[in-house]
Write a structure and sequence with these properties.
Blueprint (H helix, E strand, L loop, with lengths): L13 H25 L10 H29 L1 H22 L2 H28 L6 H53 L13 H9 L1 H30 L4 H27 L5 H18 L4 H29 L6 H30 L1 H32 L6
Helix pairs in contact: 1-4, 1-5, 2-3, 2-4, 2-11, 3-4, 3-5, 4-11, 5-8, 5-10, 7-8, 7-9, 7-10, 7-11, 7-12, 8-10, 9-10, 9-12, 11-12
């Protein structure tokens, strides 16, 4: 798969990119703000852990099913209309619960939000790629990831404050206003990027493209990073509580994770653009750092929790912009939406699969072994890469120099 030059891939003024950064913040803030607040909602809407799990899964399930479809639609009709339609749908879905305020409408609103995010999230990623030259993809995706991480960081905090002040209806009202405001901003500032002509693609052609290592490697790394991030957010507070730490200390640890991810992403993207870092080296290092963070989570006490949070955040922050930049560089411009949607599907599977894997291992042998299982899985591929590269270097060094 080779990149196809496109007239739209020119230097983007900052005014064009800020609404896309706001989109990244919106999807992250909406997902984590509500997810972190539902468990503390004590009225008839959330009556049991089973109901809570269903509401959480509903949002993610919609994204798993619909992101590749909306990514393909973005390639067909243009990413901008899909982006705007998704943001408007997100605002309307949020407003339905504000107006109805009943358990049934909470389910409907949550499903609608997930479906809407499935439209505007891959469209935003495609626009980030289309509106920036390949030489600046690392920096662009690093900045996009930075604001998304800010949304992940502030979502639980601000969401909790809003629910404390006015209940879930206030949180949904704020999300409705946020979605509408970002949609209006994007409509004014984001330029029209027309869909590019493309050859007809069969299912077999799609399968070959998605099976290409140029797609599989960065997507697998993104899925692994998301799995570790989800495990860190979900299970590090459990480890902290088991070590006798209070809610403030464990909450601070999760904030350290998100903050490290936010700080590292723009730096990693800039290093890629300036040639100081390659995708292969960065992904390998990011996976090893993330695995080391999971290993630190096995250590008792606050030191282990904080070290795990810092390393997991750093590793995932390194992987995310490099993975998306690699996907954008290796994908024909007319297929960017489809590729970003499929890659987002991989991330969603990692988001769900990581906690399930750790929980399964923890149920058999304890949480320490759950961390160890995921750490081992994340370390296998980069370790093999390093061994293979070292053997190749040694083989070249041992070859006799040719004589004339």
């Amino acid at each position: 798969m080779t990149a196809t030059p496109a007239p739209a891939r020119q230097a983007a003024p900052a005014a064009r990119m800020w609404p896309l950064y706001a989109v990244g913040f919106t999807t992250a803030f909406g997902a984590h703000g509500i997810a972190a607040s539902l468990g503390g909602h004590s009225d008839d809407a959330v009556t049991s852990l089973l109901v809570l799990g269903g509401l959480l899964a509903l949002y993610d399930g919609a994204e798993v099913v619909l992101k590749p479809l909306f990514g393909t639609l973005a390639d067909r009709v243009g990413a901008r209309p899909v982006l705007l339609g998704g943001l408007v749908a997100f605002a309307l879905a949020s407003a339905t619960y504000v107006a109805a305020d009943s358990p049934g409408w909470l389910w409907a609103a949550r499903l609608g939000q997930g479906a809407a995010a499935s439209a505007f999230s891959p469209s935003a990623s495609a626009l980030v790629a289309r509106l920036n030259p390949v030489a600046k993809h690392g920096r662009a995706f690093g900045s996009y990831g930075f604001y998304k991480s800010i949304g992940y960081t502030l979502g639980p905090l601000l969401g909790g404050v809003l629910v404390w002040v006015g209940g879930l209806r206030l949180l949904f009202a704020v999300l409705a206003v946020l979605g509408a405001a970002v949609a209006l901003w994007a409509a004014v500032a984001v330029p029209h990027v027309p869909p590019l002509p493309k050859q007809r693609q069969t299912v077999l052609d799609l399968g070959r493209r998605l099976a290409d290592p140029a797609f599989l490697r960065p997507t697998a790394a993104l899925a692994a990073a998301t799995a570790a991030l989800s495990v860190g957010v979900g299970f590090l507070p459990v480890s902290g509580a088991a070590a006798g730490l209070g809610a403030v200390a464990t909450g601070a640890a999760v904030s350290v994770l998100a903050a490290c991810a936010a700080v590292v992403q723009p730096k990693a993207g800039r290093a890629l653009d300036e040639g100081r870092l390659t995708v292969r080296t960065g992904l390998t290092a990011g996976l090893l750092i993330t695995a080391a963070g999971l290993a630190c989570a096995m250590l008792p006490g606050l030191a282990g929790v904080l070290a795990a949070a810092a390393l997991i955040g750093t590793g995932t922050g390194l992987i995310t912009p490099l993975g998306f930049a690699a996907l954008a560089a290796s994908t024909p411009a007319e297929r960017l939406g489809q590729t970003m949607g499929s890659a987002e599907l991989g991330r969603e599977l990692g988001d769900a699969g990581g906690p399930l894997l750790v929980a399964a291992a923890a149920s058999l042998a304890g949480l320490t072994y759950g961390y160890a299982t995921l750490a081992l899985l994340l370390a296998i591929a980069p370790a093999l890469t390093l061994v293979t590269r070292r053997r190749a270097i040694r083989g070249v060094a041992r070859e006799p120099s040719g004589g004339g």
